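just leaving the lab so this will be short. what follows is a protein written twice so to speak, once as letters and once as structure tokens for the fold. can you read through it and tell me how you think this chain folds. anything you notice is useful, everything is just below:
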Amino acid sequence: MSITVTPVHIGDLAGVDLPVYIHVIDHPGGRILVDTGLTDLHPMVEDMDPRLKPVSEWGVDPASVDTVVNTHLHFDHAGGNHLFAGKPIHVQRIELEDGRHAEDYTIREWVDPEGVELQYVPADGEVTLAPGIRLLPAPGHTRGSQIVAVDTDEGLVVIAGDSAVWGAELDDPQTEGQRLIRSLEPREVWMSHAAEPWRPTAS
């Protein structure tokens, strides 16, 4: 079995005209979910007008997921974490600290939902999650953002979270995270708010 990456559209932030995607990595060692989207509405983000698909329509059974990665803890990336009690959730330590303590950073009750014990696995830098899958710190969108580098049969695929929101940001990288992504020379980069991956322009 080769390693595959599949985008899953879980809803839209209609108020800012952005789709929301999570990404499934199927690996010989198990299924990894990168980010968990959001499953509920909240007054804090009412202005973004989230329009959400029910979890039953995602096409991904939470029970089939072995491991979760949060690229960062903003509400649209960690709002479904409560579905994965008992599963390891990998996040950079500095991101977990900010998600729990920084003011106006995210929806804190979605990081640590009441009555649900989540198993966060804090990372301090690069982590090899499984053969061919690495977590790499990518500061920029948040200081604790991380990306996922996936070695597939077709080449390196990066799951960027919000390290880049639009492909144009990778055409002209400005942040440490964006420059890291380009330095990896990926075949394609999946972003959380785009239906199609970014691919480098042939020179």
Notes: Helices lie at 75-78, 93-101, 108-111, 168-171, 176-183.
